[in-house]
User: Fold this.
Amino acid sequence: MILSGISCFFLWFGTSESMMIFMLCLYNGLSISAWNSLDVVTTESFPTVRRGAGFGFCNALCKLAAVLGNMIFGSLVGITKAVPILMASSVLVGGGLVGLRLPDTRANVLM
Assistant:
């Protein structure tokens, strides 16, 4: 997530079409891998009896945040390109830093 936020920040410096395509490919690759690993971490953080409900709760919040994010991004894109890029970058880096505080459950049996 931190690398995804950093690559999102560098979208601001895109000057040519080929550079923007490269930066968007880098950003999409990093963000897709970050979201897939986040899906694995969230399910492994819950005990087995609560895993389905916990994963469903996290996915419901993600869907709500996606709708709100699209609405906010759409309203900010008309102002300037700096505001949405900096906001998305800071949220991704902040989420990555918060993710570092997740518990390490590799040695624990979650039942």
